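This entry is listed as follows:

___
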Amino acid sequence: MSQHVSNRFLGELTYLDISKRLQTNSILCLPIGSIEQHGPHLPLNTDVVLAEAFTRRIIARWGETYDLWQLPTVAVSLAREHEWAPGTLSLSIEGMTGLIRDLGREISRSLPTRNLVVINGHGGNRGILEALAQDLRGDFGLNVCILHPTTGAEIHAASSIPEIHGGKVETSLMLAAAPQLVRADQIEQPQVAARADAARSIILDQAVSWPWTTNEKDIADKGVIGDAKSASAEFGEQLLGKVTEAAGRVLKQLLERRQLSRG
């Protein structure tokens, strides 16, 4: 009995389907999450859940327009800032580099398209993914971009508490995407002034980079940097919708930039 594949998961195709369903202008979507602490109220796989939720929404909205296909999720990535917490799993820099380069090599070898969008659910991956994007383009000919849907300067600027980890933004997104995983009774009132100033200085100052962890008492409270008390499912839905719509412009631009990756 044959079954029509409509959800655009690459892994649900057969090898015979690849040449029939994918074209040179198809776009591959790679969700990357993390397994790390997110305070007492959110699960370790928060970044996995959100990376996949954004990917599904983007494919549902733009899949037919740009022929999008979802690759298997990378669930463990670079999370050393959370290593103090039980359950956190982190690759080394060498491991993360090897994994992403190997995926790039395999995509280039085995699939007819070179267009790749990485949907990054973990802010701690940003620096290494930006560096590896150069490798993916230069060494494997991939036409690549990286979406960072859970970050946004306007969110930081509008909040009295920097929204960095486990706060209003991530908790709202989880209330919208997977409310059954949120331990609402474990959400605590944030402590504002001193921690907020320290977080802005140590984490958000673009002129200097510091190593930091989410158990530093100057910047975090039980692993949280942000105001989870002000989270809501409605705000989460707004963010999901905003990112999903904005992705259309990015996908269009990616296809326009294809010639750059051909060198």
About this structure: Residues 7 and 60 are 8 Å apart (CA to CA). The first helix runs from residue 15 to 21. The beta strands are 27-32, 68-70, 115-120, 143-147.
